[in-house]
Amino acid sequence: MNLYSLGELFLLAVLAVQCARLFWALVTPVGPLGDWRLAQPGVGGSPVAILRGSDPFFRVSGATVSTSTVTSLQLTLFGTRIDDAGGTSAAIIAGPDGIQNSVGVGEEIVPGVRLKSVAFDHVTIDRSGKVEELYIDQSVAAAPAVAAPAPGNAPLGASGNAGPGIAASQIRSDVQFTPRIDGGRVTGLVVRAQGSGAAFRAIGLKDGDVVTAAGGRAITAPADLDRVLTGVTPGGSLSITVERGAETLPITVTIRGQ
Fold first, then answer.
1. Please, which pLDDT band fits residue 92 given cuts at 50, 70 and 90?
2. φ, ψ for residue 219, nearest 5 deg
3. pLDDT at position 121, please?
4. Are 228 and 89 spatial neighbours (Cβ–Cβ below 8 Å)?
5. Which one of 83, 90, 105, 231 has the minimum C-beta count within 10 Å?
6. What pLDDT digit, counting tens, does each position of 126-165 carry?
7. What is the three-class DSSP state of 225?
8. What pairing do the DSSP bridges indicate for beta strands 76-81 and 90-94?
9. Is residue 159 exposed (0-12), middle (13-18) or buried (19+ Cβ within 10 Å)?
10. Exposure string for 173-203, b = 16+ CB within 10 A, e = fewer
11. 102: exposed, middle or buried (C-beta count within 10 Å: 0-12, 13-18, 19+)?
């Protein structure tokens, strides 16, 4: 027997051992390692504690809901305009004097207070480094602000203007309202004169003006202004905010009976 025959016999022996090990692995059942037990389903803590610690409307896992600080400043929020895509979100805010102003994100509301962000029903302000919230008051109907009108835009019913006011039906007949769509949402109503145009001129509007708020609420649907007009009692006032180019004009209209 030569060296090559011994090598073949050795390889055959190794192959036989591996085949035996494979056969044993296939026929031997696998058992648990150590003292293995099936885990019982369940959650930590009592059900009451779990319900108290969860918020179905805040679905960020593991997030902590922080309480916001409502500002004590004498500011009134009348409406918001959200345009995250264009970066031109703004809010209509009145200061202690009651004058409504359109303020963009990053702009100063009053000295030392800037508009930080805009949401649907509130805004976040930066008060000298302190973050506070200002909400739209929805408990009562917004009172018309005592605004300083631009030249030629004095409130109807004031001396030297249109007498006792104007009927809501005349506004509907003399002013054409076309929705302005921005990012798939209505952000105002573009106005043009129609019919006799008497009410259009008396209010002080110009073709292409955009009504962005009425009665202290932002215009978000074509019927918003009509609903506000319907709710104004004869002799009452309607406050509207108009965009004219880069200007924002607050206008107050006195509504008389039909």
1. confident
2. -80, 115
3. 83
4. no
5. 231
6. 998 899 999 887 654 444 443 434 444 444 333 333 345 7
7. helix
8. antiparallel
9. exposed
10. bbbbbebbeeeeebbbbebebeeebebbebb
11. buried
pLDDT at 227: 86
Taking the C-alpha atoms of residue 156 and residue 162, their distance in angstroms, rounded to an integer, is 5
Q: For position 206, what pLDDT does the model report?
A: 92
Burial (Cβ within 10 Å: 0-12, 13-18, ≥19) of residue 43:
exposed
Nearest residue to 91 via CA among 78, 76, 80: 80
Which amino acid does the sequence have at 157?
Answer: G
Which residue intervals of the chain are DSSP H helices?
A: 3-27, 47-52, 168-174, 198-203, 224-231
Q: Is 244 exposed, middle or buried (0-12, 13-18, 19+ CB in 10 A)?
A: middle
- Contact predicate 146/106, CB 8 Å: no
**41 phi/psi in degrees, rounded to 5:** -65, 150
